Amino acid sequence: ISGVDDSHVFISSGQNVHLPCNNALPDCKSTRWIYISHSSVVDLISDGIKKKDTESHERLSLGSDCSLNIKNITKEDYGLYICRQYVNEEQGAGALVYLHVLH
Q1: Which of 97, 101, 102, 103 is nearest to 44 (CA)?
Q2: Deepest in the core among 1, 3, 25, 99, taking most CB within 10 A?
């Protein structure tokens, strides 16, 4: 599932990060952000709305360009984030962002 358009973001613990969604549609209502760690898959944002039941929910926000903003990065935030578009319940291509946390 890896491709040429994959993004790699390097950030230090404690900073805020902006993860780009390179395949976003204009209003973000079809945007879904998914986080994949070594042990789980977590739905962070679905249909442009934050999921309230995620551990990092308070630190997340959606940018006007559908990017994912995460405040106060911790080493546990590292991993693969996927920005995917859904139109009429059809899954579009995913933009992959690998977050590397330096400590």
Answers
A1: 97
A2: 99
Name residue 17's amino acid. V
Nearest to 77 by CA among 50, 103, 49: 103
Q: The pTM is what?
A: 0.86
What are 7's strand-pairing partners?
A: 97
**Residue 96: half-sphere exposure toward Cβ, Cα within 13 Å:** 12
**Residue 87's beta-bridge partner residues?**
90
Q: In angstroms, rounded to a whole number, what is the distance separating the alpha carbons of residues 30 and 57? A: 19
Q: Using CA atoms, how far apart are residues 45 and 60, in angstroms rounded to an integer?
A: 9
Q: Return the pLDDT at 53.
A: 75
Contact 81, 97 (CB under 8 A): yes
pLDDT in tens, 26-36: 788 889 999 99
